[in-house]
């Protein structure tokens, strides 16, 4: 196992000590692209409020992998996690250095890493305070949240800005997810756990779905928080090597390779990917505590997960 405690966090573009929102993300992407023109940056779609869903492509290889973050609004700390990885990978590539014992140039030439660092920008902006409290979007979300007084607002918000949980929108046991979540009382737009009227009814989930269908991804990492666990199964769809790769990801991170709790076992992006493509797919539950995790956990989360992000490309 690599000594992750000796990693130098050398870049200084991506801030890792502030509440990260879509404005910071857009600024970071613009500057990284200016400094590292080999990055391919494009939008795969738009959110409900018209925020672009940016994708950054690292590498030029034929083998493709896909990493995503902040599908849940109050799990926004996963966005700077992926952005910091992009920054540090670029530095290693330019300098001809290794990243956790693997040549950045060799990874770059062998693999194309597609990264959507913020799948739910509207929700993230709500939780982090970028959306003004007097705006119509904020007031509409507040009206939804008022129906669920046990969920703190806005810190407990996981959904998109219209109150649909993006990670319960995929056609992999969606009806079962609906049955479970309706049974828990989430029968209409809510801060969390509402499955929507139909699968893929949100523009954010539909964009991720369509983008995935356009590519032959050999592995995906879907970043969430919290629990320090790695989920690798959906029913019996995981390929044989998925567990072997998962064990290596667990070893390098110190996270537990675990089974998903039954009530959260359906309609997620990772579930659909496994069902549709039969390639390894993982939900990474980064960090530990109560969402949203405090930003002072960032350095630990980054050290724990850098190995996962590197091995995701190497082992795919």
Explain what this protein looks like in three dimensions:
- This protein has 316 residues and is of the alpha/beta class.
- The protein has ten helices and ten strands.
- The strands form two sheets. Strands 1-2-6-3-7-10-8-9 form an eight-stranded mixed beta sheet, with helices on both faces. Strands 4-5 form a two-stranded antiparallel ribbon.
- α2 crosses α10 (298-315).
- The longest helix is centred in the N-terminal third of the chain and has 18 residues, at 78-95.
- The protein is globular and about 55 Å long.
- The protein starts with 21 loop residues before the first helix and ends with a helix.
- Mean pLDDT is 95; it is low at 1-10.
Task: Output the keywords.
two-stranded antiparallel ribbon, eight-stranded mixed sheet, 316 residues, 10 helices, disordered N terminus, alpha/beta, 16% strand, 10 strands
Could you write a compact summary of the structure shown?
By secondary structure, this protein is of the alpha/beta class. The protein has helices spanning 22-35, 78-95, 104-110, 121-128, 136-145, 174-183, 203-213, 240-253, 269-277, 298-315, and strands spanning 40-46, 52-58, 63-68, 98-99, 102-103, 111-116, 217-225, 229-231, 256-258, 281-286.
């Amino acid at each position: 196992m690599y000594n992750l405690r000796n990693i130098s966090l050398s870049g200084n573009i991506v801030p890792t000590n502030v509440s990260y929102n879509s404005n910071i993300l857009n600024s970071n992407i613009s500057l990284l692209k200016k400094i590292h023109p080999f990055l391919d940056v494009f939008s795969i779609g738009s959110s409900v409020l018209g925020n672009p869903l940016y994708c950054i492509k690292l590498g030029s290889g034929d083998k493709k992998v896909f990493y995503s973050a902040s599908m849940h609004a109050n799990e926004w700390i996963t966005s700077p996690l992926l952005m910091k990885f992009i920054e540090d990978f670029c530095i290693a590539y330019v300098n001809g250095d290794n990243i956790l014992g693997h040549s950045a140039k060799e990874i770059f030439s062998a693999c194309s890493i597609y990264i959507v660092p913020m799948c739910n920008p509207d929700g993230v902006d709500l939780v982090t305070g970028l959306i003004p409290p007097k705006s119509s979007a904020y007031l509409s979300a507040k009206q939804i949240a008022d129906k669920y007084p046990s969920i703190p607002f806005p810190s407990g918000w996981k959904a998109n800005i219209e109150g649909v949980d993006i990670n319960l929108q995929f056609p992999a046991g969606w009806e079962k997810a609906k049955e479970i979540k309706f049974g828990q009382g989430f029968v209409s737009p809510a801060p969390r756990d509402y499955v929507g009227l139909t699968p893929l009814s949100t523009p954010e989930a539909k964009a991720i779905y369509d983008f995935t269908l356009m590519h032959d991804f050999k592995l995906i990492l879907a970043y969430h928080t919290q629990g320090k666990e790695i989920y690798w199964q959906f029913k019996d769809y995981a390929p044989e090597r998925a567990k072997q790769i998962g064990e290596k990801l667990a070893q390098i991170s110190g996270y537990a390779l675990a089974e998903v709790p039954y009530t959260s076992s359906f309609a997620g992006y990772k579930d659909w990917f496994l069902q549709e493509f039969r390639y390894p797919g993982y939900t990474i539950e980064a960090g530990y505590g109560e969402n949203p995790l405090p930003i002072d956990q960032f350095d630990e989360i980054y050290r724990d997960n850098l190995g996962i992000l590197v091995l995701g490309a190497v082992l795919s």
